[in-house]
Design goal:
- The protein is built from seven helices and six strands; from the N terminus they run ααββααβββααβα.
- It is an alpha+beta fold.
- The longest helix is centred in the middle third of the chain and has 17 residues.
- Bound molecules: zinc ion (ZN).
């Protein structure tokens, strides 16, 4: 009903019907408030990582660390560095040993398909919070890789913060 009135308001340029408001306190004028955008978006709107997901990442790290023992890596200087692991190279580079002593070598998790930005426009902005957090922590859609590869993939920025009338934040 609110949506219909809002459309009527827009159609006829009636200011009072244009700004009926949204059922979610996270929304103003049909868009996410600023405090939920940018660097806060993944942690607040998608709820960030659950403990189970972090545990899984650590298990993956142990597995990837073990892979560096393969003979192919024996001449790589990083092989002798504790915590080094084999990064599967999704940043468009060849498979390589990642240096965990550097920030860019930290093990991160990448959302494969859909990415977060694709999920946001196809589903995330049209649903309740638990659906987004479940997507975000679905390990079947996550790929562990070094931070450097993850950021060089790029292209996952959110450029549209509009939401539908069904959008709800955490606890709403
Ligand atoms: Zn890498």
């Amino acid at each position: 009903m609110a949506e219909l009135l809002e459309r009527v308001g827009k159609e006829f340029g009636l200011r009072s019907l244009k700004s009926l408001g949204h059922a979610s306190e996270w929304v103003v004028d049909g868009e996410l408030k600023n405090s939920y955008r940018g660097e806060n978006f993944r942690s607040r709107v998608y709820g960030g990582w659950r403990k189970g997901t972090i545990d899984w990442r650590e298990k993956e790290r142990a597995r990837m660390k073990n892979e560096k023992k393969a003979p192919g890596w024996q001449h790589d200087p990083l092989r002798g560095v504790e915590d080094t692991y084999v990064c599967p190279s999704y940043g468009g580079r060849a498979e390589h040993l990642a240096d965990p002593r550097e920030d860019k070598g930290l093990l991160s998790l990448d959302h494969s398909q859909p990415s977060v930005s694709v999920h946001w426009v196809t589903r995330g902005r049209d649903c309740r919070h638990p659906i987004r957090t479940a997507f975000y922590n679905d390990i079947s859609n996550l790929v562990p890789m070094c931070k450097s590869c993850n950021s060089s993939k790029g292209g996952d920025a959110i450029d549209d913060y509009s939401v539908t009338s069904r959008f709800r934040g955490s606890g709403e």
